[in-house]
Specification:
The chain is an alpha/beta fold. 31% of the residues lie in helices and 18% in strands. Bound molecules: threonylcarbamoyladenylate and magnesium ion.
Length: 317
Amino acid sequence: MIGHDVLLAADNLRRGLTVGIPTETVYGLAANALNESAVVSIFKIKNRPFFDPLILHVRDLESAVPYVESIPEAARKLADQFWPGPLTLLLRKSKLVPDIVTSGSDLVAIRVPRHPLTLSLLKELEFPLAAPSANPFGYISPTKAEHVEQQLGDKVSYILDGGSSDVGIESTIINCTTERIQIVRLGGLSMELIETQIGYKPELNISKNSNPLAPGQLDKHYAPKAQFVLSDNIEETILKYRHNKIAILTFGSKTYDESIYQLNLSPTESLEEAARNLFHYMRLLDNYMPEVIISVKLPSFGLGLAINDRLSRASKH
Ligand code: TXA
Ligand code: MG
């Protein structure tokens, strides 16, 4: 069931059920983070391996305090500036956080989402919400309630409909337990903004399959069903696949052969607009059921870095 009823969502969560929740980044599949069997059901519904830990969602920085050992200065600075928002902080966990949430790690990922419906839900609740993106493991993340409905509708008790996610890609994850902070997942908060706030260029420690700091970030991720090809030269790649049914994902003012199904992430080259459209457009292209989706690479600054990260993971076999 889809709707706007925060009290019903809260009630279901109190009963240990899962609920789809809107956030400004992507939709989440939420459950009471302190209820282990409710958390187990998140992994089951998503078909997600238990080694991939979940983010704890809280209403504000103060509500995070019981779940962490301490809040280092850099973390406080970032939280003060960017929460609520597309930022997740990795901190040392307290005993209150069940091991299943962190996959046994002594670090916990925490974030305060910015969407008004989910913020009012969090204010209603006596516990934090564990919530991964509400997609089957490995597929494209959802940015609309309908995406959640289509894929997990029969498995969740309720979906809170908050419209389209206005950032459109997942939160940036920052490890705050090292002397200098490290970015462990590129996301909806740009490196440049983070740098302005902490006064130095943060180290990038983006995971490969084996990186223990963000164990869930497998190389192949965000993948549509069609083969996905990331290209430096669209014309050449179109030629290469001319015998296949293709679709293309573009960016900027350049247009291509009109007989080819194409979607433009942002004709005016806005990286924010491109991020907002990214996952929805990947789904639309996939629904057209091409054999191959060809995508441009975006400029590598601002949100372009995070978008290219998603595109490149989608193109891994
Ligand atoms: O924007 C977002 O962050 C969305 C919305 C729903 O909040 N959530 C999201 O969750 O993207 P998920 O589960 O799809 O991705 C969370 C990532 C995983 O790759 C996981 O490895 C990492 O966060 N993570 C979570 N807890 C961690 C921990 N304790 N240590 C290291 N990495 C962690
Ligand atoms: Mg995810």
